[in-house]
Design brief:
about 0% helix; 13 strands; single chain; 2 domains; 13-stranded antiparallel β-sheet; mainly beta; disordered C terminus
Length: about 250
């Protein structure tokens, strides 16, 4: 079980969310490391838009709100993930409830964006190149009706069970027709370089650099991400999942 508190702000738009999460794992077959996990998250999300931070080209635009407006909704998210020593595959969906709330029309009239469901699919595998090197390719597909489908193509090398080196290429893909989207949109989105070091069996330190390949890249110098992870061991467990090469990296 877990608790997630989240706050995002991009310009005039802000999101505040709180979820309680529960995961249930079952062993598949005789292999104790072959597991199927189900996840459920329930909570609330508040989407806000501050019209005072918007600078309209033409005054008196009715589509630009005055003052701060927000929309509060319950929300739910679901997921399933299968893992073993050689590969993993999973799918999930979030933002399941907000679009069905009765006051979404009022929120839309005020310019507050209403969150739509987002679907995710991921899969990956691990290959032993030699005694000191493992190779882990994976993909992550993200989809929603209102935006282009995005795909991350990832490749990692694990050296001596101590050092992860990896890269990601993010691009848009056309899986099915979305008539509401503009045609001939650029596909390339970003490149990511990553490194993760296991300082000890219980401590890892990671860094990632994300650079946009679209027009956003001309407006900045990319983004940086630092991560520190700790493992609290379970004495009843025969295996440490902390350094498991089939796990999903934190990036």
């Amino acid at each position: 079980m877990g608790l997630l508190l989240q706050r995002d702000q991009i310009g005039a738009q802000s999101n505040i969310a709180a979820y309680t999460n529960y995961a249930y794992r079952i062993q598949i077959g005789q292999d104790e490391n072959s597991r199927l996990a189900f996840g459920l998250g329930l909570g609330f999300i508040q989407i806000g838009l501050d019209g005072n931070k918007l600078n309209p080209v033409q005054s008196g635009d009715n589509y630009i709100p005055t003052g701060y407006h927000s929309f509060l909704s319950p929300d739910a998210r679901l997921g399933v993930l299968y893992t073993n020593d050689d590969y993993f595959v999973g799918a999930s969906v979030d933002n399941l409830i907000p679009q069905y709330m009765h006051n979404t029309a009022d929120a839309s009239a005020l310019g507050v964006p209403i969150l739509k469901p987002h679907e995710y699919f991921t899969a990956g595998a691990i290959f032993n190149l030699n005694e000191q090197t493992k190779f882990k390719p994976s993909i992550l597909i993200k989809d929603s009706q209102s935006v282009p489908t995005s795909m991350d193509i990832n490749a990692f090398l694990l050296l001596n069970d101590k050092l992860w080196l990896g890269a990601t290429y993010r691009t848009a893909v056309s899986l099915y027709n979305k008539p509401n989207l503009q045609k001939n949109l650029p596909t390339s989105s970003a490149m990511v370089a990553m490194v993760e070091f296991f300082a000890s069996e219980n401590l890892r330190i990671g860094y990632a650099y994300d650079y946009s390949l679209n027009k956003i890249g001309a407006l900045g110098y990319g983004s940086h991400e630092l991560s520190i992870g700790f493992l609290l061991k379970n004495n009843n467990s025969s295996r440490s999942r902390f350094n498991d090469p089939t796990r999903k990296c934190y990036f």
